[in-house]
Please model this.
Amino acid sequence: MNDALAPILAASNLSRHYGARHAVRDVSLTVARGEVLGLLGPNGAGKTTTLQMITGNLAPDAGEVRIRGIDLLDNPVGAKRHVGYLPETPPLYRDQTVREYLRLAARLRRVSKAKVAAAVDRAMERTGVGDVAGRLIGTLSKGYQQRVGIAQAIVHEPDLVVLDEPTVGLDPNQIRDIRALVRELAGSHSVILSTHILPEVETVCDRVQILHDGRVVYADTIAALRNQRGGQALTVTLLRPPDGETLRAVPGVRSAELLAPGRFRLVHEPGASPAEALARRCVVDDWGLVALVPEETTLEEVFVQLTQRDEAEAPVAETQP
Amino acid sequence: MIGVIARKELAAMFHTPLAWLLLAVLQAICGYVFLVGLDGYLEKAPMLAQYPDPPGLTEVAAAPVFGTAAFLLLLATPLMSMRLIAEERRNQTLALLVSSPVSASHIVLGKFLGLFGLLALAVGLFTLMTLSLSAFTPLDYGLIAANAAGALLVAALCAAVGLYCSSLTAQPVVAAVSTLAALILFWVVGLGASDPSSWTRWISMLGHYQSFANGLVNTADLLWFALATALFLGLAVRRLDRDRIYS
Model:
């Protein structure tokens, strides 16, 4: 197999139940080199369970996990070398200093003794925790602790970095920093990021899989998700509006609905916005255009549509290599 | 990898005052027992000299230190062993080890050696204390060595039992109580048996320790301690592996 083209992670048909409850059913994930995959879903959808299975923290009932072609179940030690994992609760020893802790993490991940110091320095530099290197982890703020958690996941330069809700509980500035860090990581690592925050996926991920009730209900690129959001309507506000018939006559407009005096909602064919033609008419006929807003289905709406659809209708989504 | 984990555990124990305090308290108690033994010997020495084969200073003053030490280790180990796995589970830090390329047996052996290191340090201090007598009088080094070996074996078994109990729960205190109960039961179980070949005698830790206390390094007893220690370590490994399967 060509090593450069082979996926870093290939997990197929993972299932896991807790007692009688199926937490994850038949979930498949593939991550290519340098790719950021967003795992999206409401709380309890099975995101954490899935991530625990691909990092060897939980044994799947069925399915297979291969990391760089190494079977995680047959050869866990060999496969785990290439993975860095930040669980939902960062596994930090509060009574160690940041540097001590990262040295330990590096040694546990089999960084050779001679290279530990350099690896720790590099991880601290990338995550911006260098200025607290000598402080006890227990005394750090939540944001810094989260960064230390990420630092331990990347200290051994793994091919695959798995981050479980890395921005939960942080303030907006910290969230921005962590997102920037994840984007930076994508240059040299493959990343899987789980979250229930939609804009997060949009800003940092290349591809997205949406989990609901333990199943994949959507899997595609971010661009495709955006297209799906592409609206089919415009809202236009005019100071001197013509009547609805005139508006409907504008090429591309299918129907016009009066929302308020001077404000119309114009429905058009998906992907064929009449905005330009409309603006031209407004100028030519002096309708007094003050606002022309394309209506977007928000990501939230797409999400709600996907996660509230009846199970019978849910398409079995394909994972892309 | 085992070494990395063992060093981490040992360092973690010395990060808290508990390890220091424990070493100090154990040393103080054993020191007191040692002094009492020494005092008794000096008092009785003229009387003892009338026997045809009188017991020496080592037998009267030094050996009892190890008997006390072994029992104290029984009481002290739960305090140190309780956090090993239970606390990591409660703080959800076990993921650091589990997602690293180390197997469950590495984790268990590493943690065991870390704890055993501390207990061995305590035994080492007791041994040094008894050896300090050599500056004034000849000692029976064989007897001291057998006693120290016995104490080390007790320490190893205590550590293994403690580690296993700690692997069963996410509550360190529960781990401590169950360890203490198991160890004391293990110690006293054969006491009431009049028949020396009864099975309760055989599973009792005290019975197997006794020969070391008498200066006899018996391979059967040595093997018993090794097997019992390995059994509990094996159970702990199994328990950690089970975490991934059921949880």
Remarks:
- The two ends of chain B are 26 Å apart (CA to CA).
- The mean pLDDT of chain B is 90.
- Residues 2-245 of chain B form one domain.
- The CA atoms of residues 142 and 215 of chain B lie 7 Å apart.
